[in-house]
Amino acid sequence: MKKLIQTRRDFLGTAALGAALVPLVSACQFDTVAESAPKDKLDILRANGVQDPDCEWCGARDVPDDVRWKARLHKDGDAGERLLVEGTVYKEDGLTPAPDILIYFYHTDTEGLYGRRDQHRHGRYRGWVLTDKNGKYGFYTIKPEPYPSRNNPSHVHMTVTGLKRKEDWADSILFEGDPLLNDRDYSAKKGGFKNVIELKKDAEGILRGTRNLRLWPV
User: Fold this and answer.
1) CB 114 within 8 A of CB 108
2) What is the pLDDT of residues 141-165, one digit of tens each?
């Protein structure tokens, strides 16, 4: 009986420890928990991207083979406030989740600049996500700064590409409380829902916000 009680105690202790570690493991696996997309889908998405090499805003044609529904744009040690944006992409009805939608993001650095010297024209803070079966996506990065000219609020550019839709731009993600926002920024429509998002800092000091998207007719 004593051995049985001890075994049960060991089991409960192990179970409790495992439960406590679940949030930590989940957080650490942000970039690796999802499988990458099949090659046939990626080939279609690349073909549906804008192919003009002089295009200033596009990026679907460069999607890497290991794209997942979540991504990390920044590196450890980068300056700036950590930012996590998550959301759901819906079909035109605004209710049905849209899987396999490729979103390309890019934004400025902490000085309000994009590419420098031998970098890509969009700079180092660029990346791709492919929505999961529930239309979900998310990306970690740093909070961008406005252009040095201060003529636009901080923003994250985004394009949307599907298996049956060509790459097109959506209204940029903007941030509530930015002093450079104006009435026009609140009237954006391409992508539906609110593109001016509220940010809240979590217990780890990461700014978190939600940007949902509604697809538009093609």
Assistant:
1) yes
2) 999 999 999 999 999 999 999 999 9
CATH class of 35-214: mainly beta
> What single-letter DSSP state applies at residue 183?
G
Neighbours of 117 (CB within 10 A): 4
Place of tokens 């970039």: 31
- Residue 129 main-chain phi, psi, to 5 deg: -135, 155
Where along the chain do its domains lie?
Answer: 1-30, 35-214
- Residue range 86-121, pLDDT digits in tens: 999 999 999 999 999 999 999 999 999 998 888 899
SS3 content of the chain, % helix, strand, coil (to 5): 20, 25, 50
Q: Which amino acid is at 145?
A: E
User: Terminal CA-to-CA distance of the chain, rounded, Å?
Assistant: 71
